[in-house]
Amino acid sequence: MKNILWIFCFITLLSSCIKKEEKQINNNESTKQNIESEINKNTVFSFDINTLKEGCETQSQMICTINYSIKCTINPTFSECKQYKAFMPNFIFMQDESLKRPTSQSYKITKIKPLADGTIEVYTQSTCNGNWFGLCNGNIIYVMDYQNNQWTVKDIYAIEI
Asked: Rounded to an integer, what distance in angstroms lies between the CA atom of residue 72 and that of residue 80?
């Protein structure tokens, strides 16, 4: 009888985990649809160190977070960077002349991909006038996470297609 009780407990625990994962995937899909409805994939976002402006000119909180990370990539001492530092990877704020930090950068979103762990990858086509770890020219992916009602850039990486 004890064995049957243990098996029942194990099956219940297992089924609750499966339901949670299905719910998370469904939430990611609806988030993806909401984001795709907010953005125009033909929109190009451009930033230059001489014309950086405070604030965000789009309604999408996710795009605003990506834009803040680019502003801070261009100028880590920009006025908003201190406020949004917790929402970006620490390497954005590294200070070293050898990084070849860009002074201008533009990007457009090409794809949004929800992942099983609850994060979302935002694929972009980017151009810049620097090198900066190779993370500003070409196919750049922003790994986004939604925590405490705020999007964060969890990681940034480049891929070759």
From this structure: 8
pLDDT in tens, 27-86: 555 655 666 666 667 899 999 999 999 999 888 999 999 999 999 999 999 999 999 999
Distances in whole angstroms, Cα of residue 122 to Cα of each of 96, 99, 161? 27, 24, 15
Q: Give the side-chain half-sphere CA count within 13 A for 117.
A: 7
Cβ atoms of 63 and 86 closer than 8 Å? no
Pairing status of strand 104-114 against strand 120-128: antiparallel
For the whole model, what pTM was predicted?
A: 0.78
Euclidean distance between CA atoms 124 and 107, whole angstroms = 6
